[in-house]
Amino acid sequence: MEKTKRYLSSYKTTITLLLIYAVAMAIATFVEKNHGTEVAKKWIYYSPAFFLLQFLLVLNFIAAWSRYGYVKQKRWALLAVHLAFVVILGGALTTFLFGKEGTVHIREGNRTDEMIIHTSNGVSVEKLPFVLELTDFRLNRYPGSASPSSYESDLLVHLDGKVLEAKIFMNNVLDVKGYRFFQASYDQDELGTILSVNQDVAGRTITYTGYFLLFCGFILVFFTKNSRFRRLGRQLKNLREESKHLVLVLILSIGTTALQAQTTENRQSAMITPEHAAQFAALPVQSGGRIMPMHTLSSEIVRKVYKEKKMGQFSPEQFLLSFLAEPRMWIHEPFIAVDNSEISSLYGLPKDYASYVQFFDKNGHYKLLHQMQIIYGKLPAERSATDKDMMKLDERVNIVFQLLDYSLLRIYPDPNDGTHTWYPPNVDPSIFPKEDSLFVADSFRDYIVEVNNSLQNGDWSKPGQLLAEIKEFQLKNDIGKHIDDGKIQAEISYNQLRIFDRCKLSYFILGGLLLVLAFTQLLKKRKWADGVIKILSIAILCAFLVHAFGMGMRWYIGGYAPWSNSYETMVYVAWATVLAGIIFGRKSTITMALATLFGGVILFVSGLNWMDPQIGTLVPVLKSPWLMFHVAIIVAAYGFFGIGFLLGIVNLSLTAFAKKSKLIRFRIKELSITNNMALLVGLALMSIGTFLGAIWANESWGRYWGWDPKETWALITMIVYSIVTHIHLVKKRDDLWLFNLLSVLAFASVLMTFFGVNYLLSGMHSYGVTDGVSAVFIYIVLAFTAIGILGVLSYRKRRYES
Predict the structure, then answer these.
(1) Strand order in the sheet with 162-169
(2) Which of 211, 233, 419, 577 gives the lowest tally of CB atoms within 10 Å of its CB?
(3) d(Cα 121, Cα 114) in Å, to the nearest integer?
């Protein structure tokens, strides 16, 4: 019995159980992809073995508290964090055993007192202790778009002889007698609502108590004197007092190349003056459910069609206006990107850029038409890489076609349109009021005629006057007041400043110089270098603040926190990584240098063609402050995990290649402590961010945990880094080599959570694999192969010298 107690309370058992827990969940996500959610839940998540595993984890935590005397030692932070997970698991069990989930469907003017419950055994109906009546359902869309901005239901609740009014919309919940109702969906004719409902007062209360304990526990971790984080800080301070030298063994160099496009004499003759192009760029246009400047629309067109940020010597707005003025010239110019040699050979197209007319045969038939009909007839999973490239090429050709007939230029707001739709110049003008129809029919065509005249005579006053008249028409007919001149100018400035490109270059240069200086300091101490290091550190801080300013501009322009899609999240991860470097830069210059370089690498990846930097609109469920904090905190954790990854590589490289000496051992220990502190911060942020996401989910649709692959892999990442930061407990001595190796390998779970789930697995976060993403995964595999070799070399060197 005593032996069983010792085994159950040992740290080795903790690590073993956590490892099994993480592996089981990882397997479940792939089972779900191949066999469906219900199979994954039946055989893994809700299986007796998985419940037993979680029960053993709870027993292990409790036994460890007793054996190692957490209460006697007054280690309240440690106790609070671990107790929180026990309480959270208890809340989850309560929800599983006693909670109820279902849906309620009501048509306008109708009543219901029934909740439909879907289970693995079928569908059942349960009576509600009150009656719900739907008086009105409203679906609000983004201006000129079919995309929903919000949907809401007006209800009457008939309860105990009283009638209560209530309104439900996304992130606004109705609570009645322990039942919570959430806006889930609606009927296609927009005359009925679908509400999700749950009854889980006990489970929710226990779980939220666990979340509160967790948040408090992590606050104590960073501020109580006897916490591991504070002890590591004291150790690092003592080490720095022994020596002020810094070790540098890793120099990263990154080069970028730029492609230059050439322009022809024909293009030069159609060059719009920069002054008038700027006036044209400021004209508001409706696209993608929002109002943007023509500057943004032209940039998006050039990026999609030409796959570069500018058209040779033409700025995007110069190209767009030149194309509209001289379409007969431009359709013969090669500017439509063709990046598949198989397609080029098959249709007789150039291998880089083709002209619009080259996509049509002598009889005017579209060359791709037949094949595109075949491709669109296939299921998405059946489409080959060449099929996908064909679809992208077809999209580029269609964009040019829509420029030729002006249909992309939605510049005329209709004051009588309830959806606030703006229309292009080719619209039937009769839909407008009689006094406006003539202006809509002629104004833009008159403008293009004057642009052509100005290209010949150099006098741009008349086109400028006509543009001003169009802008005046827009302001007069913008009944919804969607034109915001401040945002228009801010968006133009944002496009022109290219803030993140400049930050990327700054991070590469400053981070590289900081590494070089650290290397020269290692060879020979120079007083002047300390001053230069301070200057570089201040410059990095300035670049970081500019980076933050750029994110703030996106926030102001888009009206939402700038981490809602892949591109924005990558930009935020870069910012968080540099922030982590700045925080730990006071303790380790090499940490700041590596973090700065890594931030540059992340911004470089965000600028690749498969990342879309377009500022879009949000679906209703994403309009939640809980989501904003959830994403901000959880992605910030990635930055600290990235620091641990880089410091782990540095330490393994020192072990493998540096000559054995007391100084090297000292530096490995110093950087390992910094690594451990960074991972502890990352683990705290990851845990808090994950459970803030659970609160968001519960407040949005009534379920705080649904085993979606994204949330599951977030939990796996928490478990993996818990193992890494607790590995010192199972060794008789602090094995720095093992810790650093694990800190590197653990980053694979971050990559899986951030990239892999989106592109490899199923679920609400899945985007599907693209060619650009496939290439990134190949690079990741190669990188971890090199890391494996580095691990072996460092292990052999360590054993040989021990």
Answers:
(1) 162-169, 148-159, 122-141, 111-119, 100-107, 192-199, 179-186, 174-176
(2) 419
(3) 19
CA 285 – CA 290 distance, rounded (Å):
8
Q: What is the pLDDT of residues 619-634, one digit of tens each?
A: 555 566 666 677 778 8
- Exposure pattern of 350-372 as b/e (b: 16+ CB <10 Å)? eeebbbbebbeeeeeeebbeebb
Give the single-character DSSP code of 619: -
Strand ranges inside 81-121, DSSP E: 100-107, 111-119
The residue type of 504 is K
Main-chain dihedrals φ then ψ at residue 337, nearest 5 degrees: -65, 130
Q: Which residue has the tokens 């110019």?
A: 333
Give the amino acid at 731: K
Confidence tier at 354 by pLDDT (50, 70, 90):
very high
Statement: the pTM of the whole predicted model exceeds 0.85: no
For 123-153, the pLDDT digits (tens) are: 888 899 999 999 999 887 766 555 676 788 9
CB proximity list for 458: less than 8 A, separation 6 or greater:
none
Residue given tokens 């198989």 in the structure block: 342
pLDDT over 70 at 776, yes or no:
no
Check residue 161 and give left, alpha or beta (phi > 0: left; psi -120 to 50: alpha): left
Among 488, 784, 492, 711, residue whose Cα is nearest residue 32: 711
* Residues composing the chain: 802
Question: H or E stretch including 760?
Answer: helix 757-760
| Cross-strand partners of 172 | 169
Token pair 């110089």: residue: 513
d(CA 792, CA 802): 15
Residue 364, CA distances (Å) to 333, 350, 360, 368 in order: 17, 19, 5, 12
